[in-house]
């Protein structure tokens, strides 16, 4: 059930610190040397955690939580923790409207991303520190007239699928618990502070991402799949779908289009969101789109048809590339597939941003997803950020995790919340776009 807005901080912290302790097999993994990101913890928080792990009564945990609330947190942080705690529990889709009415972002205080990041780190105190990734500078000229546009693309793994369908045989079930995995997802987003965020497999939009991100200044849009596989899982949180978020202080929405993709003239279960935004600093228009194409081997022609349909929609929306375009998505397609070739040769003059990280600028990364299922190990490049190379340039791109960082059990894990890696790029407008036409 969703938590009442009046839920107390003490109750929220009690539910967090008294969660079941990790098994002994996982504990050794959690004690590895930390990554560069430091999880700062107050001594009352450590006391509450110690009480939980030693099996002390809930009252002791609650007392520690109360001490933390009184001695370590100001009023604004206490309100923030209460807001975070309200998103800890799952519920059915029938409760979504009730939850939205309770948490109208226009009536709530803004959230400072730094405060939310700190609270996520407190929840994650028993987990390894976030894995270090660095931005690769791709600029040929260090001069920059305008602030870059940071775009983040990520399939975050639907909670219902992770727990009920995907069968990651090397990932302990406790690593998938939403109460902590949610904070890992938020930590990844908050660490990179995207101006535009494109997500797939979002099944906690109404109870987590929309309430929190809207209070951080994002305008939020969600488009569920018509027949989401999440609904087949008992105790699901509603359908999964694509979500698009942009900072309202940086961009103004000009037009938003929801697209249900077709294949061979038939409507399919896959969707896309396309929005034309105006950059408030430059007054330049551009289009941002997010999608998630059909998964599984044997569906290559189906994905090709979906991709072709998406391109036709985007040609119409951008007036045949008159408006610059960025397309983010989990295409479920390796670079050898026809849908990839269709995008790379489109009249929209698109390039894949992550190719620029390769030595020749022509090769995609070796993987954007890496997991182990009963059928075997799956390592593929499926996720992309496409952009209009005549009008936009990539200033930098976030490096991917190495095999050593990912570890032998692959993804997801206690270290990383999804089976897909996030992609992050900084874009700027070309000053002379006609030069590349």
Provide a brief overview of the structure.
The protein is an alpha+beta fold and 437 residues long.
Question: What would you say this structure looks like, in words?
Answer:
It is a single chain. With 437 residues, the protein is an alpha+beta fold. The chain is built from 13 helices and 15 strands. Helix 11 links the parallel strand 8 and strand 9. The protein is globular and about 50 Å long.
* Oligomeric status: single chain
Proportion in helices:
25-40%
Query: Span from first to last CA?
Result: 54 Å
User: Mean of residue pLDDT?
Assistant: 82
Going by helix content, strand content and strand pairing, the class is alpha+beta
Which spans of ≥5 residues are poorly predicted at pLDDT below 50? 1-78, 89-95
DSSP E strands, number: 15
Number of helices: 13
Order of strands in the sheet with most strands:
1-14-15-2-3-5-4
Explain the layout of strands and helices.
Blueprint: H1 9-17, H2 24-30, H3 43-53, H4 58-72, H5 75-85, H6 96-102, H7 113-123, E1 135-137, E2 149-155, H8 159-164, H9 178-192, E3 196-202, H10 205-214, E4 218-224, E5 241-247, E6 251-263, E7 266-279, E8 285-292, H11 300-317, E9 325-330, H12 338-344, E10 350-352, E11 369-373, E12 376-380, E13 383-388, E14 392-398, H13 403-406, E15 423-429
Parallel strand pairs: 2-3, 8-9
Antiparallel strand pairs: 1-14, 2-15, 3-5, 4-5, 6-7, 7-8, 9-13, 10-13, 11-12, 14-15
Helix pairs in contact: 1-4, 1-5, 3-4, 5-7, 7-9, 11-12
């Amino acid at each position: 059930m969703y938590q009442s807005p009046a839920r107390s901080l003490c109750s929220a912290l009690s539910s967090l610190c008294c969660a079941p302790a990790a098994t002994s097999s996982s504990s050794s993994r959690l004690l590895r040397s930390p990554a560069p990101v430091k999880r700062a913890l107050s001594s009352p928080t450590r006391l509450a955690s110690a009480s939980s792990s030693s099996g002390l009564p809930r009252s002791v945990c609650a007392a520690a939580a109360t001490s933390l609330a009184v001695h370590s947190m100001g009023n604004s942080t206490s309100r923030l923790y209460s807001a975070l705690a309200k998103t800890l529990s799952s519920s059915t889709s029938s409760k979504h409207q009730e939850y939205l009415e309770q948490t109208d972002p226009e009536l709530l205080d803004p959230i400072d991303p730094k405060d939310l990041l700190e609270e996520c780190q407190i929840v994650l105190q028993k987990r390894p520190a976030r894995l270090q990734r660095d931005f690769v500078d791709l600029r040929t000229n260090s001069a920059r007239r305008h602030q870059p546009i940071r775009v983040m693309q990520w399939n975050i793994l639907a909670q219902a699928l992770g727990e009920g369908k995907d069968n990651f045989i090397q990932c302990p079930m406790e690593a998938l618990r939403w109460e902590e995995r949610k904070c890992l997802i938020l930590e990844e987003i908050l660490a990179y502070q995207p101006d535009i965020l494109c997500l797939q497999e979002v099944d906690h939009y109404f109870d987590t991402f929309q309430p929190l991100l809207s209070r951080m200044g994002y305008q939020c849009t969600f488009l569920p799949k018509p027949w989401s596989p999440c609904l087949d899982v008992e105790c699901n949180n509603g359908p999964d779908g694509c979500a698009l978020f942009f900072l309202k202080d940086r961009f103004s929405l000009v037009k938003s289009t929801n697209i249900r993709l077709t294949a061979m003239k038939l409507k399919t279960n896959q969707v896309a969101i396309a929005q034309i935004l105006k950059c408030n600093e430059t007054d330049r228009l551009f289009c941002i789109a997010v999608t998630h194409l059909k998964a599984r081997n044997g569906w290559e022609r189906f994905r090709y048809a979906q991709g072709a349909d998406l391109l036709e929609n985007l040609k119409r929306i951008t007036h045949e590339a008159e408006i610059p375009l960025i397309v983010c998505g989990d295409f479920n397609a390796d670079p050898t597939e026809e849908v990839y070739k269709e995008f790379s040769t489109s009249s929209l003059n698109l390039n894949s941003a992550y190719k620029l990280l390769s030595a020749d600028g022509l090769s995609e990364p070796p993987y954007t997803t890496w997991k182990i299922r009963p059928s075997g190990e799956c390592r593929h490049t499926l996720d992309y950020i496409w952009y209009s190379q005549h009008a936009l340039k990539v200033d930098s791109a976030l490096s991917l995790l190495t095999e050593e960082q990912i570890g032998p059990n692959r993804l997801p894990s206690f270290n990383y919340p999804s089976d897909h890696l996030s992609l992050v790029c900084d874009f700027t407008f070309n000053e002379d776009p006609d030069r590349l036409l």
